[in-house]
Amino acid sequence: MARNLDIACLQTRPMPSFDAAIEEALPLAEAAAGAGAEMLFLPEYCGGLASEGSALAPPVAPDAAHPMVEAFGELAARRKVWVMLGSVAVEGPGGKIINRGFMLNDQGEVVGRYDKIHLFDIQLSQTEVYRESASVVAGGRAVIHDTPFGRVGHTICYDLRFAQLFRALAQAGAEIIACPAAFTKRTGEAHWHVLNRARAIENTCFVVSPCAVGPIEGGGESYGHSLVVNPWGEVVADGGTIPGLVHARIDLDQVAVARGRIPSLDHDRAFELAGETGRRIA
Fold it and tell me: Which of 114, 167, 165, 110 is nearest to 139 (CA)?
């Protein structure tokens, strides 16, 4: 019997306040639960996002009393759904914040947290510069959430460019790797689809990537195109460029089938890199 799981990505707009973010996301979550979704996936900074110059300036709250976590904990318990809050901004050390994702079970309880490891410090042009590390403290621990449906790896946005993180999650048993994002429109147009498909193919797993869509207050724009990609690298669902829901029914048995056909996760080998002169580099 197939291990079917009904999922939904909430493709929300970046909102500058807690109240606006909750008002944006809750109706979509209600609609998804009403349509039969068993697990909901929300984007990066789904609890609110704004920018100040090159730095991100999302609304911030303590981990233990975050309005978005509280609102979706109540929804998860009432609608009996699992919820991955892609990330929200929580208070961190030294006056900085932590870009932290949460997994909520169908009782509304927090059963997992992930702090974004790779921070988005890039310069796309003279005028388009991003310095996430100016306001955010990086995490240092990869996370898999154990759920009744299967094992779900948690990454966030810029993590998508670091294949070794996805590899480690897949080799630790992740069948779904989620990459909630607020990917920039410019980099999204160039790289979003190919990176998501590559991570799914390399690791013979589902990749589920809810992405915010639309302008960010203070500057910047998120790409949208929330994706569900199967273990063969095929795009199962694409959210396009407008806010809304991305539904998919996935069969988690496809992971074992793909890994049986191409067992590359078991074929990693240690190697040395030789330099141009033939000198071995450890």
Answer: 114
